[in-house]
């Protein structure tokens, strides 16, 4: 059976943050069994919680990448007020924020990497992920970029690293708020914990299948996917 190692990151600063709880749920034995059934591969998912910090988020994730040596890295971000999952197409080489991070740091507007490209495309197969979400009734949409806060900075650092690590697929998906009881009679906003966990499983499964297709075409260098 083929083996895949996957890292899923969430943010550690708020205990009820959907990114942290979803990341941890994806490291469960139940998720592993589900992924193995869907992909016919042995899948090990390693959750890692990183601080919501411009200075510390990427070093924390990088340390886990260097230890685990995964083929896939999925970063979970949060998009408050969104109706569903946001699948971000690109990471911008830009920091610009009107509020500080968890360290109380508010960097001046500027690039993430002084000599880096203006943006990187995701390496997640967003088209097929979106189709899988539709099949399983997970609300989602494509997003042009991830903004200019810590989520985007983490995404950009990951893609900058993956530019030289050609066998690594990765990217960012942003989760909405938890679904709450709505007294208006309208459909409540946000998603449930089970929907977010299912979304994470589908992202991992579709990326594994995509990785295998790329490896079959070129066993050395998977192509970037921008759809």
UniProtKB/TrEMBL annotation:
Q: SUPFAM superfamilies given for it?
A: Pyrrolidone carboxyl peptidase (pyroglutamate aminopeptidase)
GO molecular function terms listed in the Swiss-Prot or TrEMBL record: pyroglutamyl-peptidase activity
Looking up Pfam families in the UniProt record yields: Peptidase_C15
Recorded catalytic reaction(s): these are: Release of an N-terminal pyroglutamyl group from a polypeptide, the second amino acid generally not being Pro
Output the GO biological process annotations, alphabetical, semicolon-separated.
proteolysis
Q: Which residues form the active site?
A: 151
Alphabetically ordered keywords of this record:
Cytoplasm, Hydrolase, Protease, Thiol protease
Identify the PROSITE patterns for this entry: PYRASE_CYS
* EC nos: 3.4.19.3
Offer a single GO CC term for the protein: cytosol
Q: What class of enzyme is it?
A: hydrolase
User: Is Hydrolase set as a keyword in this record?
Assistant: yes
Family (UniProt): Belongs to the peptidase C15 family.
Q: Which PANTHER family match?
A: PROTEASE FAMILY C15 PYROGLUTAMYL-PEPTIDASE I-RELATED, PYROGLUTAMYL-PEPTIDASE I
User: What protein does this entry describe?
Assistant: Pyroglutamyl-peptidase I
């Amino acid at each position: 059976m083929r083996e895949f190692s996957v890292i899923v990151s969430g943010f550690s600063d708020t205990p009820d943050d959907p990114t942290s709880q979803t990341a941890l749920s994806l490291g469960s034995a139940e998720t592993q069994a589900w992924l193995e059934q869907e992909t016919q591969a042995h899948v090990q998912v390693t959750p890692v919680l990183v601080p919501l910090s411009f200075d510390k988020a990427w070093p924390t994730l990088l340390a886990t990448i260097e230890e685990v040596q995964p083929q896939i890295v999925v970063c979970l971000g949060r998009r408050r007020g969104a109706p569903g999952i946001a699948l971000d197409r690109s990471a911008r080489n830009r920091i610009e924020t009107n509020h500080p991070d968890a360290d109380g740091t508010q960097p001046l507007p500027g690039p993430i990497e002084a000599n880096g490209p203006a943006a990187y495309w995701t390496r997640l197969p967003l088209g097929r992920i979106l189709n899988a979400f539709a099949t399983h009734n997970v609300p989602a949409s494509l997003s042009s970029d991830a903004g200019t806060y810590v989520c985007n900075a983490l995404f950009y650092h990951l893609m900058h690293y993956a530019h030289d690590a050609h066998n690594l697929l990765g990217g960012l998906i942003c989760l909405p708020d938890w679904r709450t009881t709505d007294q208006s009679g309208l459909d409540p906003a946000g998603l449930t914990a089970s929907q977010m966990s299912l979304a994470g499983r589908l992202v991992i499964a579709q990326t594994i299948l995509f990785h295998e297709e790329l490896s079959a075409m070129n066993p050395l260098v998977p192509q970037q996917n921008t759809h």
